[in-house]
Amino acid sequence: MGEVNTPLPVKDIDHVEFFVGNAKQAAEYYRLLFGFDLIGYAGPETGIRDQASYLLQQGHIRFVLTTPLTPDSEAARKIHQHGDGVYDIALRVDDAEKVYAEAVRRGAPSVYEPREVRDAEGAMKKAAIQTYGDTIHSLVEKNGYEGPLLPGFRPLDKKGGNQFLKAIDHIVGNVEDGKMNNWAEFYSSVFGFDNFITFDDKDISTEYSALRSKVMASENKRIKFPINEPAPGKKKSQIQEYIEFNRGAGVQHVALITGDIISAIHDLRARGVEFLEVPDTYYETLTERVGEIKEDIEELRKLKILVDRDEDGYLLQLFTKPVEDRPTLFFEVIQRRGCQGFGKGNFKALFESIEREQSRRGNL
Ligand code: FE2
Fold first, then answer.
1. Helix 238-246 to helix 347-360 angle, to the nearest 10 degrees?
2. Which of 34, 55, 81, 99 is least buried, going by the fewest C-beta atoms within 10 A?
3. pTM, whole model, 2 decimals?
4. Pairing of strands 10-19, 61-68
């Protein structure tokens, strides 16, 4: 087993960058359906020749959508392989050079060395290391940078109108069969993250398919990365379906935290976000499973919100359908009332719903 190192001083997720086939249209998708404000643009008009990027924000959540303008760029090659999806989970640090040097010393593959990115608002320092699949972690040092955006972006002011989504709760990676422990060890040996929770295939299985998951967390618990791998079942695991369509490991879902999931889901449904279907029967036994909760069960049933409880409290959650035609990346909306778990009690109900979708695609 790999060594567990002292934690690297990574503070939080700064932003998530997606490579997409058409960033102009994707930006409007996240603005109109998820209610993000479109706050920045970078591209040929701002001196960047080979790609265009849009910066979206809601609460503390920042997404960058980037599209290549030429067929032979790195972004174009990655989109060709994987379709639209997460490229960079950018982590905020105080000293990019130090964190980068230590991560590389501990065995993380380098993507690029520390470099300064400058505009009229000042300078930021960035470096990047490779993680699972074609995904990277850039290390973002903001010290001294005054602008509200990222260097090179010019401001846009197109409101999205949703304020219910506040921050990123966790980001889940799907990795190949047998690789979960390697990647869990990567996060403990490179970043010094702890194994927060482990789920085995007995926790997360239905009659047909199963997965295993290890949740790796930073010392301050602001960064939580569950790592999933497929487990054998009677039929194909949904993780295996992801791996096949994504052509390898990658980000499966980004969980967005809210303080008011009822209003959040009400709003997102009205805007046209599609969520996984939950059978009405799920609500018949809900009180038995989770006990007393503050929310009105009838309201939860109408909005199809899931609930799970552990010894510390409960959580409410719901998952979107994949946001691309490939069955790959999706989003989760989550509200925590004490519970620090990930909805283990919902996995079975949820899996059966995912399998119905998988079966409709002919992939079960
Ligand atoms: Fe999740």
1. 50
2. 81
3. 0.94
4. parallel
Residue with tokens 């109900």: 349
**C-alpha–C-alpha distance, residues 119 and 46, integer Å:** 10
Q: What separation in Å is there between the alpha carbon of 255 and the centre of ligand 1? A: 5
Domains for the chain: give ranges and CATH numbers.
Answer: 10-158 (3.10.180.10), 165-361 (3.10.180.10)
Q: Is 357 annotated as a binding residue?
A: no
Which SS3 state, helix, strand or coil, does residue 191 take?
helix
CB 96 within 8 A of CB 143: no
Distance 152 CA to ligand 1 centre (A): 32
- Which residues neighbour 304 within 8 Å (Cβ) at sequence distance 6 or greater? 265, 275, 277, 278, 318
Residue 341 Cα, ligand 1 centroid: separation in angstroms? 9
Position 282, amino acid: Y
Phi, psi of 280 (to 5 degrees): -55, -30
Residue 266 is assigned to a ligand binding site: no
State pLDDT tens for residues 177-223. Answer: 999 999 999 999 999 999 988 887 777 666 666 788 999 999 999 99
| pLDDT tens sequence across 133-183 | 999 999 999 977 887 788 889 999 999 998 899 999 999 999 999 999 999
**How would you label 326-361 residue by residue, b for 16+ Cβ within 10 Å and e otherwise?**
bbbbbbbbbbbeebebbbebbbebbbbbbbebbeee
What residue type is 274 in one-letter code? E
In angstroms, what is the span from residue 344 Cα to ligand 1's centroid? 10
- What residue type is 222 in one-letter code? R
Q: Rounded to the nearest 5 degrees, what angle is found at the Cα of 201, between the Cα atoms of 179 and 133?
A: 25
Q: How far is the CA of 288 from the centre of ligand 1 (A)?
A: 23
Is 170 annotated for ligand binding?
yes
DSSP 78-101: HHHHH-SEEEEEEEEES-HHHHHH
Cα separation, 234 vs 305, in Å, equals: 28
CA of 3 to the centre of ligand 1 (A): 27
Based on its alpha-carbon atoms, the radius of gyration of the chain, rounded to whole angstroms, reads 20
Cα(64) to centroid of ligand 1, in Å?
Answer: 21
Per DSSP, the residues of 119-144 read ETTEEEEEEEEE-STT-EEEEEE-TT
Q: How far is the CA of 317 from the centre of ligand 1 (A)?
A: 8
